[in-house]
TrEMBL record:
This is DUF4825 domain-containing protein. Signal peptide: none annotated. The chain crosses the membrane at residues 12-32, 39-57, 142-160, 228-251, 319-338. Residues 536-618 form the DUF4825 domain. It comes from the Bacteria. CDD domains: M56_BlaR1_MecR1_like. Keywords: Membrane, Transmembrane, Transmembrane helix. Residues 94-104 have a biased composition (Basic and acidic residues). Residues 10-310 form the Peptidase M56 domain. InterPro entries: Beta-lactam_resp_regulator, DUF4825, Peptidase_M56. Residues 94-130 are annotated as: Disordered.
Length: 747
């Protein structure tokens, strides 16, 4: 369903864009009505381009640069109208079991490892009716319903036209060849051309010789100009865009211009004295109105009255008039064939300063539309957002602020190692207005840093757009003994955190700058919550069966950083389950399970009807056979581990979701206290052990894997040793170990 919706939205966007082109061509067509009709005929090619291709080159000459169109969402390569709602995939409620491969992503933009694609249901959708506040019917939003209606219309109209074409072919099956590609038939009333690869001219019997000459000249010129292919292509576009009345008008006017331009060529060859005689022939073969649409080319087709008036009024146009008409047509063709080039509203030119502690300096200038700026800091640990802070903000002078629209930004930084860890300081000064951000790396256990900045070595002159935040400084953080890798700031501009740069270091502190048309207080209010949290909040969905939305959540929660996976959905019965199947055995099961215990509560909260989150991964046994370990978490377990009540309620507001994200990011399994004495672990019962181990395995007849956290003196102790020792009362060779019991967050 998601694929059909995306196709329809693409067609709809093209149709709206082409509608603007149709209106402009109609206006120009009126202005150049005295010029040869071939010019107007050629202009319709641009409309056809807009109807079939969603992409075009950006240019400052585009008509879509007008303020009227700038209110809508546009990109340089593709025009997308913001009332269409292409940004967010709709939820789909399905029954059955779905499996989606993270390597074959199609339902979500940017297919990377760890993202999921839109699946096909393996079982029928359960019957029933449901309407929610999201305007969904049986789990479908309005655009999904419209996409089904659109497809039904395409199929219905296509079948009707195909049937009409076959009916016409059968009508001339007894036609007699009279020479070349000309055939005569007594079952037709009007001459026409039909055929895609070998076009034929069909004439009624007993056509007068004089009229026969006019008809053949007219139809042969159609064939020479390949109008039969143009007409078929135009009909296909009409079927594709059947819902747009402007496309129907364009089809009719294009056919009219095609015929009139052909009439003009015939009169030019016959001479002006033949206009009356030719007009009489047109009138005598006027095609009935019900047969005007189709892929065939009929001599008496399309607005005979208009064509006769055009023929009778034909005069040789002056050279100046023709040149002016050509210039207008070229100009208009460019206007509507290219996309808008978004106006760059910030110029940013950075350079390093000689003193390393002084950092770097930026020359900037902002457009008159821009009213404010904001600098904020994000801290990520192992790919998870741990801290967020607005560092600086300000308004520009003519919008009530104190910052000039042109000037310099100076950024300094300093780092200092202390007993508790490394501390950093960033000084941010805009035309003398200084802000200082102090950051304690030690609270996250970071002891090393490598820093990069958006300056001359990386970008000589960079231009930005409204509401486009970008990284101006990146501090790459490491722990004791880590080798910290430095990456360019621009590598972090995209928030797809499954990328290598987001997981190469234990932590990243990113300073992002944004400029806006809002006033500074509205901008601060918008950024009160971290953009990452806002994006997650906007991506919550109602149904486990919405594979596209589920996949987006998995990407936002950085599940792909744990390894490649497929996604499996179970919606045939409650509890509804989302399963993440990792393809390879993890290097460290403890780390993967810990990270999934952080992410599973977020998924349970963000997917309204999700009852359980499962994850699996293969483990190779000593005999070479592979066993799949399956783990699960439900809402009750998540609440117990996190020490909260009402997990689902945490997605009601941005503030509560931010609180939940922070709780999950800080989550660690809680165990009873273990003391350390020298090189020994001391159990609560006083026994001492050399090793502390996490052991994983499957108990007999169990559906899910289990884990034991134990103290032992046996370095070779296995999960089976512990399990059999605990389950068996008769086992003679019981292992000596202490099982460390897990505690809930409230204990």
């Amino acid at each position: 369903m998601g694929v059909l919706k995306e196709i329809f939205l693409t067609v709809f966007n093209m149709s709206v864009t082409a509608g603007v082109a149709v209106l402009l061509v109609i206006g120009v067509r009126f202005l150049i009505r005295k010029a040869p009709k071939s010019m107007a005929y050629l202009l319709w090619a641009v409309v056809g381009f807009r109807l079939i291709c969603p992409y075009s080159l950006p240019s400052s000459m585009s008509i879509f640069n007008l303020e009227l169109f700038q209110k809508h969402a546009v990109t340089d390569e593709k025009v997308a109208w913001n009332f269409v709602g292409t940004e967010h995939s709709a939820a789909e409620k399905q029954s059955g079991k779905l499996s989606v491969d993270s390597e074959k992503s199609g339902g979500i933009p940017a297919a990377e490892s760890g993202t999921a694609a839109e699946p096909e249901p393996s079982e029928p959708v359960r019957a029933g009716r449901q309407i929610s506040e999201d305007n969904r019917l049986d789990g479908m939003d309005i655009w999904e319903i419209l996409s089904i209606v659109w497809l039904a219309g395409v199929i219905g109209l296509g079948m009707y036209e195909l049937a009409a074409y076959n009916r016409l072919k059968r009508q001339v099956v007894q036609a007699v060849k009279s020479g070349g590609n000309v055939y005569e038939c007594d079952t037709i009333d009007v001459p026409f051309v039909i055929g895609m690869f070998r076009p034929r001219i069909y004439l009624p019997f007993r056509v007068a010789e004089k009229e026969r000459g006019y008809i053949l000249l007219h139809e042969q010129y159609h064939i020479k100009r390949k109008d039969y292919l143009v007409k078929a292509g135009a009909l296909a576009l009409l079927i594709l865009h059947w819902f747009n009345p402007l496309v129907w008008i364009a089809y009719h006017l294009m056919s009219e211009d095609m015929e009139m331009s052909c009439d003009e060529k015939v009169i030019k060859k016959l001479g002006q004295t033949m206009k009356c005689s030719y007009s009489n022939s047109l009138l005598s073969f006027a095609e009935p109105r019900q047969r005007m649409r189709g892929s065939h080319l009929a001599f008496g087709e399309s607005s005979v009255k208009t064509r006769i008036k055009n023929v009778l009024g034909l005069k040789k146009p002056g050279k100046v008039a023709v040149c002016a008409a050509v210039a207008v047509c070229i100009f208009v063709a460019v206007l509507i064939s290219v996309n808008p080039r978004q106006k760059n509203i910030l110029r940013y030119d950075g350079r390093d300063l000689a003193d390393p502690d002084a950092g770097f300096e930026v020359s900037y200038s902002v457009d008159s539309k821009i009213n404010s700026y904001l600098l904020y800091r994000e801290v990520y640990e192992a790919g998870e957002l741990r801290d967020y802070k607005i560092v600086s903000s300000g308004g520009f002078q003519d919008s009530g602020g104190e910052i000039e629209r042109r000037g310099t930004i100076q950024v300094g930084r300093s780092f200092k190692n202390e007993d508790t860890g490394m501390k950093g300081q960033l000084q941010w000064s805009v035309n003398g207005k200084e802000e200082v951000d102090r950051f304690d790396f030690g609270q996250y256990g970071f002891w090393s840093v490598a820093d990069t900045y958006l300056v001359g070595g990386e970008v000589e002159k960079k231009e930005f757009k409204p509401e486009e935040d970008f990284v101006v400084a990146a501090w790459h953080l490491g722990r004791t003994g880590d080798t910290t890798q430095a990456f360019p700031c621009s590598d972090f501009d995209q928030r797809t955190r499954s990328k290598v740069v987001w997981n190469a270091n234990p932590g990243e502190a990113l300073y992002r700058l944004v400029v806006s048309e809002m006033d500074v207080w509205k901008l601060r209010e918008k950024y009160e919550a971290a953009p990452y949290i806002r994006e997650i909040y906007a991506s919550k969905n109602s149904y486990v069966g919405d594979a596209s939305a589920d996949g987006k959540l998995l990407e936002l929660l950085n599940v792909g950083s744990l390894g490649e996976y497929t996604m499996e959905l179970q919606t045939s019965e409650e509890p509804y389950v989302l399963t993440v199947n990792f393809k390879e055995e993890p290097r460290d099961q403890t780390v993967l399970n810990w990270k999934m215990k952080q992410k599973a509560p977020m998924l349970l909260a963000l997917i309204e009807n999700a009852g359980e989150i499962h994850w699996t991964y293969p483990v190779a046994g000593g005999d070479g056979k592979e066993t799949k370990y399956r783990w699960k978490m439900d809402c009750a377990e998540a609440e117990q581990k996190l020490g909260i009540d009402g997990l689902k309620k945490y997605t009601k507001t941005l503030d509560s979701l931010e609180t939940l994200q922070d709780i999950c990011a800080r989550y660690q399994d809680q165990y009873e206290d273990i003391q350390i004495s020298g090189d020994k672990y001391v159990a609560p019962d006083g026994r001492k052990y050399k090793y502390a181990k996490y052991l994983y395995g499957m108990l007999p007849n169990a559906s899910f894997a289990s884990s034991y956290h134990v103290l032992t003196n046996d370095e070779e102790l296995t999960f089976d040793d512990v399990a059999w020792s605990m389950l068996s009362s008769t086992m003679e060779d019981k292992k000596d170990f202490y099982w460390i019991h897990e505690r809930s967050a409230s204990e």
